[in-house]
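To fix ideas, we quote verbatim a fold written out as tokens:
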Amino acid sequence: MILMNFLPELSALTEPIRFHTGHIAPEIGGQAAGTAAALCIKYHCGPKDMPEHMEELQQLLLKDDCYIPGFRNTDPQDLARTAQISATSAREGFAPEKVINGVSRDENGIRNMWSSDGISPEGETLTLKLASVKKVSQVRLTFDSNFNYPIKITLSKKRQLQQRIGVPPELVKDYTVTLWRGEQKMAEQKVTENDQRQNVVTFEPTECDKVTITIHTTNGEKDVHIYEVRVYS
């Protein structure tokens, strides 16, 4: 019922998906409807008022790793967008700056991710130097789960053989996120045994001017793959 109430008002959002894929996946429509409902509560409005808040809805969906063809991250609250990006290594064509280019998928043959050139014994580090000292409470990371392989529940033997069993080897497994002010370490979070594409690492609000992400291991891939990094106060 909620989805049916909202879909007519979300045509501007869903049409790019229909154009590229020929259909709207139920999970995309459902996520859009749920997020739109939250915005209606926020603004004390109804579904017919949603076009007034369409840009905010689109940006919220992108933030939560929904794919909307033709749209990029333009979230003004994302501190990473104005940061200087560097890395300990990078494969040709996979520059570290790609983690803030606004697209967290491969698109039109372009690989929109940073890839390290191997993983050193000390790990591979991605560094974001913020434009100024800011309070940081959240770092959002989008890793590579390799969408080239279908992942679905199916009784078809043919489809089952096309799928890979277990955690995608491209996913980052163990990593550390550190907040710095100058050369002083202000806060740090370690994550182990990760098996998710999108990770949200939270901190107590901490003043810093640099964020480092050090990847220690993946789930099998020889290089580190990161599609997107976002930083929020």
Summary: Helices lie at 2-6, 11-21, 26-43, 54-63, 157-162. The first strand starts at residue 84 and ends at 87. The two ends are 36 Å apart (CA to CA).
